[in-house]
Amino acid sequence: MLRLRLERAPAPLWFRSLIPVIAVPVTFLLTTILILWAGADPLRAYYEFLIKPLASRVSLIEVLVKSTPLLLTGASVAFAFSAGYWNIGAEGQLYAGAIAGAWLGMVLKDVSPVIGIPLMIAGGFLAGVLWALGPALLKVRLNVDEVVTTLLLNSVIVFLVSYLLNGPWRDPVSMWPQSATIADGTVFFKLIPRSRLHLGFLVALVAIGVEWYVLKRTALGLRMRAVGLGKDAARFAGINVNRTMLTAALVSGGIAGLAGVGEVAGIHFHLIESISDGLGYSGIIIATLGGLHPFGVGLAALFIGLIDTGAQTVSQALNVPVYLGTVVQAALLLVTLSLFVLQNYRIRRA
Amino acid sequence: METFLIGLIAATLRVATPLIFGTLGELFSERAGVLNLGIEGTMFLGAFVGFSVASLSGSLWLGFFAAVLAGMLSGVLMSLLTVRLGVNQHVSGLGITLLWTGISLFGFRLIFGEPSIPPSIDPFKALTPFGQTPVLGPIFEQHILTYVSLLLIPLVWWVIRRTRFGLDIRAVGENPEAADAAGLDVYRIRTLALMIGGGLMAAGGAFLSLAQLGAFTYGIIAGRGWVCIALIIFANWEAAGVLWGALIFGGVASLQLRLQTMGFKLPYELFLALPYLVTILALMIAGRNVSAPASLLKAYRRE
Prior knowledge:
heterodimer, A: mainly alpha, two-stranded antiparallel sheet, 13 helices, B: mainly alpha, ABC transporter involved in vitamin B12 uptake, BtuC, 12 helices, 72% helix
């Protein structure tokens, strides 16, 4: 009889990339409990959740709209995590990009889009870099744990946005807590007429492509991955670990900043307090699901975008609370994390 | 001026209560070597379970203990992920926060629907040990849970510093390999610490829904869990420091509220951001000398 045993050794590569795929059905099995609690038919719910959004052109485009900031926050987190820098601050860096976008949209009054749009993109990136700079410097100069500092700064910038919107930036026309509508020349143009899909989606795809190239095809990418695998070993190999981590942290902040500017220039056209509502934290989920690989991140972001859209469909159709989407995201993350442990094992004949 | 000060002291204690519960909970987790970023979600879950059970059963205490139980289960889940499976601690913690936030909102919507007037309960009555006595009367007019939180501080200090169990917790948080070699069950001790911690965090959330508000709202926790993450560093992982940290934060928060109602134009957001900025500053000054438990964030794998 064939006897098998588990052994501690790296699992084969094909199995590792399969883990997120296995995690999906496991997650849906677990969340079925909630659907039953809501008194809905699980099969019908999953149809509304996962298939319906893909079935019509309008909702399919909406999935891409929802995915746009997620592609960027996912790419941002994956870039930092690849170099072993635990940036939890994509949420805050996204807000920084959004603030920059709203500000540029106010000061660039009669700008032509040819100048306005590149300025918005550069400004959003730069703002994200700046908000990431403090924790990154503290990490490399004083060895202060970046998890806590980036996390705390997420709260700080939400207070800053709240101050701006209730104070100096409050819309003088409507008196709502939102900034003035941005100038026409700074609005991201639509990729498909009469839809909400905007230039930001293209920016996100380019960012993913560039990230793949940098991580897999350049010396910097090699250094980053070496640092991510082990700082001491990388240092021993002659890599400047601090400089590599600093670069990874700042670029990561910049990419998250792009997500913020995209939401301002492509969706809302002004700054509002709830402009993110967790997109940066979803970026951590997406980076994890995607195994930190840029293309994996791309697929994961589209999938989370589908879940966000599907949660609304299922809530309208079957009266299942829309928060099902949040639960599915969280459960998917935890299940995937648990299954990743399997990649340290191999099945061998005894 | 006198009534202003008395009111301020009384409000400070009220604001500090959920932070004391939460930070003491985080203290247990981190002393055992696990950074529990699930705190924000665990407090939210505590607020939701406490309110729902109290509202359905009519018993505030039943609600409170159900919340604590839910928090302990949250600790078990965190332990399963980070202790048993050795998964990345901050990602698991954030995942747990998201999970409990989603489940609480989902459950609240199913149980209470979307009424135009949010459901509410009669909250815990404040105790008045000094009756209407001037000065002492209003200051000591606090909820019983506030008294409990204040008594917990010396108790937690005693458990961590003076008992065998506390020594075990510190041992697995500082050097799990050595603790294991000395015959301690690292997994079991970390799990227990996470369960106690989770229960305390949920108690902090339940205080908000059962005593302070008598209701459950979307923004009931509003980042208080993250404040606790800051306070634990500020407190240098010591129970006594938790008291000072929570009181200073509570004092500043109550002061800005009072100054604002008196008509001072203050950017109150600056005051709200202050504890975070002060913590980052403290980390900067302390730098490498911060005495975090040595094995914080490190999973322990028994070979």
